[in-house]
Specification:
The structure holds 2 protein chains of 2 kinds. Chain A is built from 20 helices and 20 strands. By secondary structure, chain A is an alpha/beta fold. Chain A folds into 3 domains: 171 residues, 3-Layer(aba) Sandwich (Rossmann fold), CATH 3.40.50.970; 166 residues, TPP-binding domain (Rossmann fold, 3-Layer(aba) Sandwich), CATH 3.40.50; 171 residues, Rossmann fold, CATH 3.40.50. In chain A, the strands form 4 sheets. Chain A has a 6-stranded parallel sheet with strand order 3-2-4-5-7-6, with helices on both faces. In chain A, helix 9 packs parallel to helix 12 and helix 14 packs across helix 15. Chain A is globular and about 75 Å long. Chain A starts with a strand and ends in a 35-residue tail after the last strand. By secondary structure, chain B is α+β, with helices and mostly antiparallel strands. Chain B contains 4 helices and 9 strands. In chain B, the strands form 2 sheets. In chain B, strands 5, 6, 7, 8 and 9 form a 5-stranded antiparallel sheet that branches. Chain B is elongated. Classes of the chains: A alpha/beta, B alpha+beta. Chains A and B meet through loops of A and helix 1 and helix 2 of B. Chain B: Keywords: Amino-acid biosynthesis, Branched-chain amino acid biosynthesis, Transferase. Chain B: GO terms for molecular function: acetolactate synthase activity; acetolactate synthase regulator activity. Chain B: Its EC number is 2.2.1.6.
Chain lengths: 578, 163
C-alpha cells in the first residue's frame, strides 16, 4: 500500500486504535487535515483553542487509561498547546501530540508560523521527534505511542514539516507491530529481595501508614492496593493525584494528606514509624517542610521511575517497578509470612488516629445563610451518588472537591495536580464525556478558572457533550485571596475581578442552560434539575461565601503536625471578612 | 565532589541539547562537556564533568538515564579510571624566550606543532591539573590563546562502557 505522509499519519492513528483526535487546523497541517476529511474511523474534535485540545485529550487519557491524541499546527498552534503538554507531563499522562512544522527547506529561516517546537517542548515532554523523511512517519508514531504509554507515562510530541505530508509523495506503508529501543527499557517487576525486606519492615511496624499517589491509578494497581491495605489493616492516605486509588468511604481511609489534607492523615504521617509510599513522588505540597517530614518513619517507596526515589526525601527501602506487579508480590509475601501485623500495636495506633478524627477538621458552618462551597460539593456527591466523573480547575474549589467528594473508584477525579493549570476543568470534562457519554460528568470550577478556557463551551455544543459546570462563584481568586489573608495581612492585591460576566447569559449565548443559585436551600434542587437535563450542558453559577477558606492548611515551610485548622474548639464557624 | 560521567547516547540531532537542557532546567552545573561519535556511528560518547554531593550526583545520573536517547552511562569517579584533556596553546615568543618555551614543552611532554618567528603552538594532553600547571609556568602576557577540550576519560581494567 502506497500512501502520502498525511494519509500515513491518519492510518497510523487507526492502526493504533485511536478513537478521538483533538485539534485545530492551520497551514502546516492542511495535508493531514485533508487526509482526516477522507475517512471516518478517527473522529476529530475541533476545539476553540489549542490549550483546550490538550486538556481534553489529557482528561480522555486520565479517564480511560488510553493515550490521548492532539493535532495542532506550527507556530502559535504549538505554543498554545504547551500549557496542556506541561500539564500532562507533570501528572505523567500518556499523550501523543502531532504538531505541524514549516516545510523542511525553510526551517530555520524564521518562516511564517515557524517556532522551534521541538526545542520549546523539550523540557515538558517525555520525548519528542522531528520527522525528516516520509518513510519515518510510521515508525516514529509507533515509538511515540510506545513511549507515551509505558514506564512512567507522559506526553510525546511528533513535529512534522509540511513537505513530509505532501500528497504527491507516496511511499509504502506498514505500521510496525512492535518497536524496540535499545535506550529505553522500563523496569516492570520489582527486586525480590527489596520487596521481601519491605514486607518484613511493614509487618513489624507499630504505627504504619500507606501513602499512595497517582501512580496507583496510572498503573492500574488500585485493586491490589485495596487488598493489601485491608489485609494488613493499616491506615491509608491518598495524595491529590491518588484519590480514588483506595475507596474513600472505607474506614481505613484517612482522607487526603498534605497542604490541605486532613488532620488525621497528616498527624498519622508525622507520628508513623513505617511509611509505605506507593506511586507517589513526595511532592512539596505533600511533604511540607522536608526537615520535619515523618521524623520517626522508615520509608519504603515503590515507583516505576527511579528518579522519583530519594529525590526530595531519603528513602530506606526503594523498590523500582510497576505498582501492580510489586503490590501483587507483596500480597503473596504477606500471605505466606509467619509474621503477622501486631494486633495490640495496631489497636493502639487506630485509637490515636480516632482521637485525631474527633477533631473533625472538615467541619464547616452548615447553618450559614450564604452558600458554603463545601455544601455544594457535598450535595453534588449525593445527587450523583458519588459515581460521577469530576474534573476541576485549580484553586479553592479544587481542594473542596478533593476533600468533600469521596472517590471510591479510580479515574473519577480528573484534575491538574502537578502543574496546577487553571482552565483545565471544562475541556477536561468534554474529553471525559466523549469517552463515557452515559456517565455523569461535572466540572467543579470557580469564576476565575472557568474564564481561562470558557471558549470550549462552544465545543461542548458542537459535539453534544452535556457536562455540568459547578461554578463556585465567590468573586475572588479564592486561593490567592486566602494566601493574601494569611500571609499578606489581607492586602488583596489583584485577586478580585471588578467585572465578572453574567454566566447564565453566557451559557445561553453558547447554546446551553444557565442557572444561578443564591440560597443554600436552592442548591440541591438546582443540581437535581441540572443532572435531570441529560442532553444539555448546564452552567450552575453558585454564589458562594466570599470569606470561606480551605482548611486544614499547612502553610509554606511548616511540617505535617503544624496545621492551621478552621476553628479552635469553641470558636463560632462564621466570621466576617476583614 | 568532582565527578566524570561518561554517557553513550543515540547520535541524533538534539541529543546534546537534551543533556545540556536537563542540567540548566534542574540547576546542576556542567564544568565541561565533550562529545563525539563512537566507532558505531549511531552512538555518541559524551564525557561530562560536574560537581555535587552524593544526593545531587545520584539525581543527575538518574535523570540522565531517564532521557530516552541515553543508552548507558557510568560515573567514572566510582572506580579507578584515567582522564585526559587535550590543550592547544599559542605562546608569544621572543628570540630569548624560544628555548625556554621548548624546554617547558619537553618537560611537560608536549609538542610544538606550529611555529612562526614570534609564536609557537603547543599541543599537550594529560590530566587537567597538568595542563593548568603548564599554563601557570608562563606569565600571562606571553599566552596568546588557550583551547582546551575538557576532560575525557576511561575506566581502568578490562571492563568498558559499550553496548
Amino acid at each position: 500500500m502506497e500512501l502520502s505522509g498525511g494519509h500515513i499519519l491518519v492510518q497510523c492513528l487507526k492502526d493504533e486504535g485511536v478513537e478521538f483526535i483533538f485539534g485545530y487546523p492551520g497551514g502546516s497541517v492542511l495535508h493531514i487535515y485533508d487526509a482526516i476529511f477522507q475517512q471516518d474511523d478517527v473522529k476529530h474534535i475541533l476545539v476553540r483553542h489549542e490549550q483546550g485540545a490538550t486538556h481534553s485529550a489529557d482528561a480522555y487519557a486520565r479517564a480511560t487509561g488510553k493515550t490521548g491524541v492532539v493535532l495542532v499546527t506550527s507556530g502559535p498552534g504549538a505554543t498554545n498547546a504547551v500549557t496542556g503538554i506541561a500539564t500532562a507531563y507533570m501528572d505523567s499522562i500518556p499523550m501523543v501530540i502531532i504538531s505541524g512544522q514549516v516545510p523542511s527547506p525553510v526551517i530555520g529561516s524564521d518562516a511564517f508560523q515557524e517556532v522551534d517546537t521541538v526545542g520549546i517542548t523539550r523540557p515538558c515532554v517525555k520525548h519528542n521527534f522531528l520527522v525528516k523523511d516520509v518513510n519515518d512517519i510510521a515508525e516514529t508514531m509507533k515509538k511515540a505511542f510506545y513511549l507515551a504509554s509505558t514506564g512512567r507515562p507522559g506526553p510525546v510530541l511528533v513535529d512534522i514539516p509540511k513537505d513530509i505530508t505532501d500528497p504527491n509523495i507516496k511511499v509504502p506503508y506498514k505500521y510496525p507491530k512492535k518497536v524496540h529501543m535499545r535506550s529505553y527499557n522500563p523496569v516492570v517487576v520489582g527486586h525480590k529481595g527489596q520487596i521481601k525486606r519491605a514486607v518484613e519492615v511493614m509487618l513489624s511496624a507499630q504505627r504504619p501508614v500507606i501513602y499512595s499517589g497517582g501512580g496507583v491509578i496510572l498503573g492500574e494497581g488500585h485493586k491490589e492496593l485495596t487488598e493489601l491495605t485491608q489485609m494488613l489493616g493499616f491506615p491509608i492516605t491518598n495524595t491529590l493525584m491518588g484519590l480514588g486509588g483506595y475507596p474513600a468511604t472505607d474506614k481505613q481511609f484517612l482522607g487526603m494528606l498534605g497542604m490541605h489534607g486532613t488532620y488525621e492523615a497528616n498527624m498519622a504521617m508525622h507520628e508513623s514509624d513505617v511509611i509505605l509510599a506507593v506511586g507517589a513522588r513526595f511532592d512539596d505540597r505533600v511533604t511540607g517542610k522536608l526537615a520535619e517530614f515523618c521524623p520517626y518513619a522508615k520509608i519504603i517507596h515503590i515507583d516505576v521511575d527511579p528518579s522519583s526515589i530519594s529525590k526530595t526525601v531519603r528513602v530506606d527501602i526503594p523498590i523500582v517497578g510497576e505498582v501492580k506487579p510489586v503490590l501483587e508480590q507483596m500480597i503473596e509475601l504477606v500471605k505466606e509470612s509467619k509474621l503477622k501485623p501486631s494486633k495490640p500495636a495496631l489497636e493502639a495506633w487506630w485509637q490515636l488516629i480516632e482521637s485525631w478524627r474527633e477533631v473533625k477538621c472538615l467541619e464547616y458552618d452548615r447553618g450559614s445563610l450564604i452558600i458554603k462551597p463545601q455544601f455544594v460539593i457535598e450535595q453534588l456527591y449525593e445527587v450523583t451518588n458519588g459515581d460521577a466523573y469530576i474534573t476541576s480547575d485549580v484553586g479553592q474549589h479544587q481542594m473542596y472537591a478533593a476533600q468533600y467528594y469521596h472517590f471510591d473508584k479510580p479515574r473519577r477525579w480528573i484534575n491538574s495536580g502537578g502543574l496546577g493549570t487553571m482552565g483545565f476543568g471544562l475541556p477536561a470534562a468534554i474529553g471525559v464525556k466523549l469517552a463515557f457519554p452515559d456517565a455523569d460528568v461535572a466540572c467543579v470550577t470557580g469564576e476565575a478558572s472557568i474564564q481561562m478556557c470558557i471558549q470550549e463551551l462552544s465545543t461542548a455544543l458542537q459535539y453534544n457533550t452535556p457536562v455540568k459546570i459547578i461554578n463556585l462563584n465567590n468573586r475572588y481568586m479564592g486561593m490567592v485571596r486566602q494566601w493574601q489573608e494569611f500571609s499578606y495581612q489581607s492586602r488583596y492585591s489583584q485577586s478580585y475581578m471588578d467585572t465578572i460576566p453574567e454566566f447564565v447569559k453566557l451559557a445561553e449565548a453558547y447554546g446551553h442552560v444557565g442557572i444561578r443559585v443564591e440560597k443554600p436551600a436552592d442548591v440541591r434542587p438546582a443540581l437535581e434539575e441540572a443532572f435531570a437535563l441529560k442532553d444539555r450542558t448546564v452552567f450552575l453559577d453558585f454564589i458562594t461565601d466570599r470569606t470561606e477558606n480551605v482548611y486544614p492548611m499547612i502553610e509554606a515551610g511548616k511540617g505535617h503536625h503544624d496545621m492551621k485548622l478552621r476553628v479552635a474548639p469553641g470558636t463560632p464557624l462564621n466570621r466576617e471578612l476583614s | 565532589m568532582r565527578h566524570i560521567i561518561s554517557i553513550l547516547i543515540e547520535n541524533e540531532s538534539g541529543a546534546l541539547s537534551r543533556v545540556s537542557g536537563l542540567f540548566s532546567a534542574r540547576g546542576y552545573n556542567i564544568e565541561s562537556l565533550t562529545v563525539a561519535p563512537t566507532e558505531d556511528t549511531s552512538l555518541s560518547r559524551m564525557t561530562l564533568v560536574t560537581r555535587g554531593n552524593d544526593e545531587v550526583i545520584e539525581q543527575i545520573t538518574k535523570q540522565l538515564n531517564k532521557l530516552i536517547d541515553v543508552v548507558k552511562l557510568i560515573d567514572l569517579a566510582d572506580a579507578p579510571h584515567i582522564e585526559r584533556e587535550l590543550m592547544l596553546v599559542k605562546i608569544k615568543t621572543t628570540h630569548d624566550s624560544r628555548e625556554e618555551v621548548k624546554r617547558m614543552t619537553d618537560i611537560f611532554r608536549g609538542k610544538i606543532i606550529d611555529a612562526t618567528a614570534s609564536s609557537f603552538v603547543v599541543e599537550m594532553t594529560g590530566h587537567s591539573s597538568k595542563l593548568d600547571a603548564f599554563i601557570h609556568g608562563f606569565d600571562e602576557g606571553s599566552i596568546i590563546e588557550v583551547v582546551r577540550s575538557g576532560p575525557t576519560g576511561i575506566s581502568r581494567g578490562e571492563k568498558g562502557l559499550h553496548l
